[in-house]
Amino acid sequence: MSKLNQVLLDWKQGDIHGLEWFRARGVDQRLAYYYNDDYLEKVGPGVFVRKGDEVSPYGVVRFLQQELGLKLHISGRTALELQGHSHYVALGSKTRIYLTSYEDKAFPTWIKKLEKSFEFVFKKSSLLAQENFLTTQSESGFDLKISTRELAALELIETLDLSGSLETAENYTQSLLTLRIEVLQKVLEECNSIKAKRVFLYLVEKSNLPWFKKLNKEKINLGTGKRVIVKGGELNKKYQITVDRDYGENPF
């Protein structure tokens, strides 16, 4: 029991752990199952939470990244909001945590039953050829892999439904005053989504962000042909995308 006591003392509030984590600390899996009812609560196959704890979404992400070794990261809107670019607070609803992976692996279905005050939005992406442009950030005491703001801006546009309006994307884009131009240049060069790149550059230029003129646009592949983004919108000739009609007076 002494080893299990030490494990419980070391357990961060809201965290979850699997059997490999127990074994690494000298606790046999049979002991973990034996004390399931008294000290632990089984929440998935060989996965436990400390009895009485409210599971943290960041504890779940830490488990997925560090214990299961899944190549996924906090992305898009969530990554931007965690780095100070927040615009929308949905009162009375669950906190959405956006996760992106470039692997062809399924998101564990048992995690759904943990989603009480939060929910995960999981996306398999081909935005980049491989997982890149990540940073480590501490949230609620958990060190997590998260998109840099430069990547997160493109991920946001990739996941938004823009058919009605670009307003949400524009609101986030306007706050990106201090992106690192050298990182952003590489992200845009490696990005596979013509749509995301065109919309992003259109919104950045429209917002007159200070670093826009420093980008080397000749190295960014924007493809050919027109793209319908906003249904029934007006064609922006420079970027060959349809945008909200009230944007139609733009000089570029």
What is the β-strand count? Answer: 10
Give the helix proportion (percent range).
25-40%
Radius of gyration, in angstroms, nearest whole number: 22 Å
Structural class, judged by helices and strands?
A: alpha+beta
Task: Sketch the topology as an H/E string, one letter per element.
Answer: HEHHEEHEHEEEEHHHHEE
Written description of the protein model:
The chain has 252 residues and is α+β, with helices and mostly antiparallel strands. The chain folds into two domains: 2-50, no CATH class; 57-247, no CATH class. It has nine helices and ten strands. The protein has helices at 2-10, 19-24, 29-34, 57-67, 76-82, 149-159, 167-173, 181-190, 194-207, and strands spanning 16-18, 40-44, 47-50, 72-74, 95-101, 118-124, 134-139, 142-147, 234-236, 241-243. A three-stranded antiparallel β-sheet has the order 1-3-2. A hairpin with a 2-residue loop joins strand 2 (40-44) and strand 3 (47-50). The protein is elongated and about 70 Å long. The protein starts with a helix and ends in a 9-residue tail after the last strand. The model has no long low-confidence stretch (mean pLDDT 91).
